[in-house]
Amino acid sequence: MSLSGFAVDLGGTKTAAARIEGGKVVERRQRATDPGAGMEAQLDALAELLAGLGFEAGAALGVAVAGRVDKDGNWHAVNTGTLRAISAAPLGENLRRRFGAMARPVNDAAAAGLAEARLGAGQGAHNLAYLTVSTGVGGALVLGGRLIDSSNGLAGHVGFSSSRFGDQRCGSGRLGTVESVAGGRAIAAAAGLPDARAVFDSGAHELIIDRSAAAVAALIGDLTAILGLDRVVVGGSIGLAPGYLERVLGHLAGEPELFRPAVVPAELGHDSGLIGALLFATEAAR
Ligand code: ADP
Fold first, then answer.
1. Are residues 138 and 245 in the same domain?
2. Above 90 in pLDDT, residue 286?
3. Any atom of ligand 1 within 6 Å of the Cβ of 282
């Protein structure tokens, strides 16, 4: 794999930057994301991380961000609780101005899904969905080898679809979404604990964790009905938490066979957003 260049993964909690060679992260730097910072301040932080990695303007650079990136490269927070100062920020234009013509923005789950499709657990699948069960529930669709995009940048945000298990609102503002039941924020709120990790560690909230897995299994069945998926790759800290995928598979076993694609864990771990961001920038430049 000849994929080489630089990548950034700007999430709600941390911003990671990496130098990638031969499809692998060879050097990485990270700092906490300032959730209240506007685009320029986020770009300053990113420039510092990249400078430490030896980046020079004009090199291939992919930038994965939490939130929507529309067809004009404008960046919108979807969950305004996460990056509250980001609203229609002209990210694509400013990335090119500051970092050169090869710099491209992309949604973080789309990047991770693209990486899994090309280099990870999704290789060889025809119609693939990537699901990340983390603070929220994100996703990406790679159909016939093509990452599905949309002019408003919302395509692939599968966690905002309705769930029969849901009766709360999630950060998108929609009622009864998969994310409102299955995401880390929802799991923590249901258990009255500070975060989802504490819920898993307590061992005392099996029903809450199981409801999350049931909602993800139903989502897989729904997506399969709509898109004819042959494989689903599951990532995110909750998706990859011990025992979680087994629970999803347990619930999926209750679906008719036609609605049960192969469901496998993500292979690229925390590097998938970085690798996918660079893949996206490289493929877009072709
Ligand atoms: P992000 O949401 O920023 O993409 P992660 O994929 O790491 O990041 O997801 C963070 C969520 O995963 C939080 O809700 C956190 O509590 C939860 N989490 C992190 N580690 C674990 C773990 N080992 N087991 C269960 N939940 C975890």
1. yes
2. no
3. no
